[in-house]
Amino acid sequence: MKQFCFIPFLLCCFYTAFSQESAGDLYLRAKEKSGQEKYAEALKLVSKAIEIDRKNDEYYYLRSVCNRELRHYSDVYSDLNKAISLNPENGKAYLDRALMHYNSGNIYSALNDYNIALKYLREDSLKKSCYCNRSAAKLALRNFQGAIEDCRLVLSSDSNNITALNNLARALDETGKPDDALRYMQKVLSLDSGISYSYTNIGFLYLNKGEYSLSVQNFDRALKINPRDAYALNNRGFAKYKLNDTKGGLKDINLSIKLDPKNSYARRNRALIYLGEGNKEKACGELEKARQLGFSETYGNEVESLIDKNCGKK
After folding, report:
1. Which of 21, 58, 213, 214 is least enclosed, having the fewest CB within 10 Å?
2. Within 13 Å and on the Cβ side, how many CA atoms surround 149?
């Protein structure tokens, strides 16, 4: 009886020994689950792998991907930082951290990480993505020529890259070449007519050219695809104002600000409408809010000039 009693215990020991997986096996299973977009399952598996082996940068990188898809953003930063500390040549980790910095408004940090990522990335697709994302950072820093160079580099080997075409158009418009910008944006639409922001960007180009009816038409198309496009609403509102539809313009801009309270350009537009109505008090409040939201860093000194002219220096 005593020997018989020990048999289940021995079987249990054997079962436990064979059921234990190595960190590598857990990682491979996590990678498979991630590829199937089963991120919660992948997160559990890769976390177990890390418990076994805390010195593999790829484990932390994969966990950062899972956390990002699950919107655990603070954990994403932690995992990317750990991956980079373990392997300072992990280009993918720099690329992903750069995007996190960019989305958080830390543009200089993003640009620095993009520059480092390009030293270590090996896959052409990832390099193209990095150049495209770096061009967006350069646009945000008003380095338009740098953005143009990054976009043209991508387009030299991938002439239909939609992100590069879109960012190139934005940079060309900022450097006083709206017709060239429009040509590139129309190419984007020829490649994919279902992209709402393409219509938004074309609408903005027409707005800057003073062709307000065409501008509204394109914003209407953008909003048909995405009714919550705050940027399309904001700029359609200003185009309507220019077409003497002040009520309709303010309605659009008010909704835009409700959807995206941190959009400094919407505050600028609302301020200009208030100035047009002769309401300096409201206008100055909007201009000050635009300044606090960083308008000058992104768009130049227009708001500062309007404050000096209409509100006095603050």
Report:
1. 213
2. 6
